[in-house]
Amino acid sequence: MKKIFNTKGVTLAEIMVTMAVLLMVFIIAASSDMDKQKKREEFYKNVGQAVTLMRTSRNYAITNEVFDTEGGGNPTVPEGGFGIFIEKIDSPEPSASFTLFIDIKDENGDLTPNGKFDISHDEILETFTMSSGSYIETMSANGTDFAANEKEVVIIFTPPSADMHINKNNGSANDFNELEIVFSCSLSRFYFKVNSISKFFETRKEVI
Predict the structure, then answer these.
(1) Is the Cα torsion angle 10, 15, 17, 22 positive or negative in sign?
(2) d(CA 18, CA 56)
(3) If DSSP codes are grouped into helix, strand and coil, which group holds residue 132?
(4) CA distances (Å), 160 to each of 2, 76, 108, in order?
(5) What are the tens digits of pLDDT across the range 171-203?
(6) What is the predicted pLDDT for the residue at 106?
(7) How far apart are CA 119 and CA 122, in angstroms?
(8) pLDDT at residue 134, as a whole number
(9) What are the phi and psi torsion angles at 60 (to 5°)?
(10) Which of 194, 200, 136, 207 is CA-nearest to residue 167?
(11) What distance in Å separates the CA atoms of residue 86 and residue 161, rounded to the nearest whole number?
């Protein structure tokens, strides 16, 4: 019986086409991974800057930093201490802003723990706004989420022991024991918690 063999093999052109397709798939996958990595790095950079401002405020209170808040050439340790004003931004796109400031008495002689951050008299040292894609997802105090219209919170550290006061920026002295902020982007979450008793910052990352 005569055997019939398939003598047709794979041509060089077919091999080259297959390799080209595989190369394109690899390039697309690698590009996507690189884009995701860049977005995560940008997100963590944003969160890092925000947390750094909070640490700076606490460190100023611990080290009794002096400032000439009266403008008379006589620097002193601010009586009201150093604060961070945090604002959750929802529009035109989600974001968040952070303001490092010196708490100065208002016309009624009140400091932030008994009032709120007021740009008209408190002295601003530094501000930072998260770039596009990074934002505050939620804020909660003592385990209770802020209401939808509650988008501002103030943390004050008073010298010399950096006693901490956590208040919603609504004119009343809430003095919460604990504040948790969840930072988000499309690829990651970052949990930040601060306790007024322990004065410690707790952080945790989560990849979505």
Answers:
(1) positive
(2) 57
(3) coil
(4) 101, 13, 24
(5) 666 678 899 999 999 889 999 999 888 777 888
(6) 66
(7) 5
(8) 94
(9) -60, -40
(10) 194
(11) 22
